[in-house]
Amino acid sequence: EDNDLIGAGVPLSFRAIVNDLSGNLAAAEVVNIKVDFPEPTGPDTPYAVVHYQRPVGDYGDRTTGDFNDFWGLHLWGDAIAPGEATDWPSPKPFLGEDDYGRFAWVELADDTLPVNFIIHQGDTKDPDNSPDRSFVPGATPEIWLKQDDGTIYTSRAEAQGFASVHFACSDCSGVALDAATDAGSLVTDAPPDATDDYGAVWNLTSADLSTLVTVSVSVGGTPNVVDQAFTPTEIPAAWLQPGEQVLYPSRGGAEDVATIHYHRPAGDYGDQTSTDFNDFWGLHTWTGAASPTDWPNPVRPDGFDSFGAEFRVDLADGADQLAYIIHRGDSKDPGFDQFLMFDRWGHEVWQVEGADVERSYVAPAKR
């Protein structure tokens, strides 16, 4: 129960009633039980996320162990957990990877204090000769940075200067977009700026990316998706499906796919080619999965990136969560059943070995 509703130490009474479905009832009661609720520990925001974009992807090679060979994050201050403070020759690498670029996650001790940081490769800082920078994760748990730009952006849309709209199509000829804010039209009957493996893509610029944008898509001049609205600073990429009057905040939501990224610091993911589930780390799924797994036949990674393994799971229609266990044989990590709630975390998360039940995901940094 919520501590705000029932105080610690308040006597409680419980009654259990069983119906055998034949008209017979049985009951038992326990009275005056005092329950002590544990006090919450740690900050409201357990991790901060620092996104960093280098347009040509030259983040360097951290595997050499030489800080002259890769871009990393120098960290200090009372906001961060003791183990997160870095020495200059041992910066924190940007191991996470998403559509924006790379990111680092920072465990916090106090989210009300500033996280102090410098991005550097060897003794070269980015931006060159930049001053020390900081942000308060209790107010802004995720920040977005760009090469040669000293601005700390608090949304991806502001960092990249646009919001994207995606419309699923295999043949995107004749597809067009109308987009407007209260201040006026952004584009009218505009063909896609590009196409990709999802479909048509438009990049929308606006004088104020924190204002509501309303979009409509037509196909061959006929309205298909009408008057769907989003705020770019909250949803930097909008995803649309043909004929569906729904705007999805992620590709996973649009395609009914959950993606779980899994990081093992030692890189010991096992042999994914083996037929024996004792030889590799896999994903057991049940509630929410389109095809729940048998324990000896877990989902295998779809691939690997700088963070680690990537598991993609097709979802049942209307699923609002995915229940899963990461395991190798009968060894589980971290050991408890996990439930990815889409309304809280979205359809894509990043998890590290030994995750805590109260703070399973290092990204996204939602509270």
In short:
The chain has 367 residues and is mostly beta strands. It is 4% helix and 45% strand. The protein contains 3 helices and 28 strands.
Describe what you observe in this structure.
This protein is mostly beta strands. 4% of the residues lie in helices and 45% in strands. The longest helix is centred in the middle third of the chain and has 5 residues, at 156-160. The radius of gyration is 24 Å and the shape is globular. It starts with 10 loop residues before the first strand and ends with a strand.
Q: Any descriptors?
A:
single chain; 367 residues; mainly beta; five-stranded mixed β-sheet; five-stranded antiparallel β-sheet; 4% helix; globular; disordered N terminus
Question: What is the percent of helical residues?
Answer: under 10%
Largest beta sheet, briefly?
5 strands, mixed
Shape type: globular
Specify the oligomeric state: single chain
Kindly name the structural category.
Answer: mainly beta
SS summary, helix count: 3
Number of strands: 28
- Percentage of β-strand residues: 35-45%
> On the 0-100 scale, what is the average pLDDT?
93
Strand order of the largest sheet: 6-7-3-11-12
Q: N- to C-terminal separation?
A: 19 Å
| Unreliable residue runs | 1-6
Q: Roughly how many Å is the radius of gyration?
A: 24 Å
